[in-house]
TrEMBL record:
Residues 10-142 form the HTH marR-type domain. SUPFAM superfamilies: Winged helix' DNA-binding domain (SSF46785). This is HTH marR-type domain-containing protein. SMART domains: HTH_MARR (SM00347). It comes from the Bacteria. It comes from Kribbella hippodromi.
Amino acid sequence: MEKSPKHRLADRVLWALGRASQQSHRLVRQHMTTAGIRTLHYHVLASLADDGEGAQATLADRIGLDRSDLVTLLDELEEQKFLARRVDPADRRRKIVAITPAGQRQLEVMDRLIYAAEADLLKPLTAAEQKTLLSLLSRLAPDS
């Protein structure tokens, strides 16, 4: 069997970062799916835990989701008791969304799944190489 040629950008950092990013997303999806968890649920719960409660529209903007798509996710998470919605007393047309203690526990489970996916991704690297990679990536994206 003939070996396929390398991609024209295979020696470029942006290409390698993109491929590594694709692999990391695939591994996270794989770990989450195996556990019966939707990855989009993680984004909602993590935003509520990290940035605090907020209006549904604000939450949609924070995580970059269409507002109508977010409602479906919120319905699912509320049904599982991972979040609670209440009417905003300042504007009764708005709903405020907050993570619940059960949602916080679920988020911790999800975090562990992400850590496992990261461990799978980084298996080829030594501990020192992993530390160097994180340091270099942090310098490229200082806001993260």
